[in-house]
Model the fold of this input.
Amino acid sequence: MSDKAIITLEGRQYEYPIIVGSEGEKAIVTQKLRSDTGYITYDDGYGNTGSCLSDITFIDGEEGILRHRGYPIEQLAKHSSFISVAYLIIYGELPTAAQREVFRERIRKEASLHTGMNSMFNSYPTRSHPMAILSSMLNSLGCYYPHMASNNREQDIEHFDEAATLLISKVRTIAAMSYRAEQGLPFVWPRKDLRYTANFLHMMFSEPYDTYEPDEDIVEALDLFLLLHADHEQNCSTSTVRMVASSGANMFASVSAGVCGLWGPLHGGANAAVVKMLMEIDRDKDDGTRFIKAAKEGKARLMGFGHRVYKNYDPRAKILGRAVERVLVNLGRKDPLLDIARRLEQEALNDDYFVSRKLYPNVDFYSGLLLRAIGIPLDMFTVMFAIGRMPGWIANWREEAMAPKQKINRPRQIYTGPAKRDIEDV
Ligand SMILES: CC(C)(COP(=O)(O)OP(=O)(O)OC[C@H]1O[C@@H](n2cnc3c(N)ncnc32)[C@H](O)[C@@H]1OP(=O)(O)O)[C@@H](O)C(=O)NCCC(=O)NCCS
Done:
């Protein structure tokens, strides 16, 4: 195979190098295209643009494959935990038992918030969306640790381990507090004896006068949810984190921007949108047929279906679909929305509109139902995604920050506005 791409422009040929990733993904390196030819590439939505080289996550969307640092997601879901996968994503290897204990302990120690932050929660109106609170609080968190959020690259990297565990720990505390602030409930402090996921549930649902004792099945299901969201290469929020990081901004500012990128319904907001859609279908006494028809006519979008990268079943959706069923059985409950989701899935998978466009269930199709089964309120769904995604954002920030050549990310555009004109005399 030729190791060069030849591009012909205005009758002249130009050669550009080809790079191949460790899983055989190929790219044409067009960095010099503009200086050589005056042309840029135009790729609306970046579907064909590689914005970085990364060692963290590999996705083959055609085959429905997701691997972190080489390990298939199915194996990690079966044999690992959120905290171990977080370590893997950030540091490149699964932790030994001793490394995991140190990592856990550092996370445990960082669980509480500076009391100065409490008054900040109180200044939001009740009913403020917890994603808005989460994003601002994560950025503000950096103000309490200025030595880790200096915007001096060398200094921020020097404090990386500390900042990473602090963020993984405190994002969960902030998330729980933002929910309680939204509800006008008193804050519940973390407990030292509880592990990561159980501690989050405690901070969400305990009351000062009544301790919430989470069911083991619920803790396990939520841990699986977090693990399955830990990273997903260059999606909208992670690319945002890298974009912000490329300017030299610290990790707190970068992940705070990532939360905003995640919020929208075409990204992390889809998990709540799926459940809202299923509730509407239920309320309309539709068995799904009318909704599918509306989606095909372009009047609705089947939320939780379709993906920019997966043109096959998202492997996380398979695991989550089974997990919802397991949790409901273990808890002895039924959810009519799960029946509707299964029916929609069957209809769509057998319908040429969806098949020809390669629209399959994505991670959000069943994740909202899992959160609902666990008892997480709808407004918190995307916040849960953010807690899970924190290790991925941190690992991507680190790659960007430690790149041998610091280069700010700065795409170009094709200007389509008015050509030069002059202000007329008045
Ligand atoms: C994820 C998503 C944004 C990917 O978008 P994309 O790669 O830009 O794909 P497009 O929006 O260009 O869609 C391609 C075609 O499929 C259709 N399509 C895509 N997702 C669809 C959905 N969920 N329901 C119905 N039709 C859909 C589009 O209408 C378009 O049809 P057309 O070719 O006739 O115009 C999109 O599939 C979507 O909106 N899904 C629902 C939201 C969601 O679940 N997001 C979470 C992603 S993890």
Notes: The longest strand covers residues 12-20. Residues 270-374 form a domain with the Cytochrome p450-Terp; domain 2 fold (CATH 1.10.230.10). The pocket of coenzyme A is lined by residues 45, 266, 270, 295, 301-308, 357, 359, 362-364 (CB under 6 Å).
